[in-house]
Specification:
single chain, about 240 residues, mainly beta, Immunoglobulin-like, 2 domains, eight-stranded mixed sheet, five-stranded antiparallel sheet, 15 strands, about 15% helix, about 45% strand
């Protein structure tokens, strides 16, 4: 079924003491542009059509109506993805993305009243997750986990291409700060010359009640991919 909004008329009869009552309802089903492009992309991928895959990606990014993030613009992680509202008040983060010619520098300032790293499972302790999906689809989704532990110039970094990421960290009076530089070349699906990069972030903490995780979007869901809410404008 092609992309668009479809209206279905449902008609039904209800039997009662007054006789038979007839009623109609209009139901609208919307097939999103993302879903339409994903079908095109998957078909091209199955046929090993790299040009078709690239076109589907570029069309998706070009028509994105989600939030565009400029260099250095701050967006805050304050919506609970996991954990109670009470514990969420003790955790917050401000994220800034700085696209450069060959990489993206990400600066994250975190307020974490329950600071403590879990080296075995990073997202169960104080840590930051950075998400990238260069072509807009989930098959290029990269998640990097960074924990403020170890030497200042060598925090724990886990995820695809982690060995290429340069990162630093330091404690602050109410939490910590992480700066990470992520090369485009380490991100699956990136093509030189693209002007938008789907991105997202999440901050984690271990609380007395369990794990608390915050994201920036009001839905409480991290991206990117189909749930992407942020598109970073890259250096041309």
């Amino acid at each position: 079924m092609p992309n668009g909004t479809y209206t279905i008329v449902l008609a039904y009869n209800t039997h009662s003491d007054l006789g038979i009552l007839s009623s109609k309802r209009l139901v609208k089903i919307e097939f999103s542009f993302y879903e339409a492009q994903q079908r095109i992309y998957e078909a091209a991928k199955k046929a090993n059509d790299s040009a078709g895959m690239a076109k589907a990606s570029l069309d998706l990014l070009a028509r994105s109506t989600n939030r565009r993030v400029g260099s250095g613009q701050v967006f805050r992680l304050e919506t609970a993805h996991q954990g109670s509202k009470q514990e969420a008040r003790k955790l917050s983060a401000a994220v800034q993305w700085y696209p450069q010619a060959e990489d993206i520098r990400v600066e994250v300032s975190v307020v974490d009243a329950n600071f403590g790293v879990n080296p075995k499972t990073l997202n169960q302790g104080s840590s930051v997750c950075l998400f990238f999906a260069p072509n807009g689809f989930d098959d290029t989704r990269t998640r990097l986990n960074i924990a403020p532990s170890g030497a200042a110039d060598a925090p724990i970094v886990q995820g695809p291409g982690a060995e290429s990421v340069k990162a630093t960290w330091r404690r602050t009076p109410d939490g910590y700060r992480i700066v990470a530089t992520v090369p485009y070349a380490s991100l699956k699906g990136y093509r030189k010359g693209w002007t938008l990069m789907p991105v997202d972030a999440m901050v984690n903490s271990k609380t007395p009640e369990g794990r608390c995780a915050l994201v920036g979007d009001a839905t409480g869901q991290p991206g990117p991919g189909q749930t992407t809410r942020y598109y970073l404008k890259l250096v041309k």
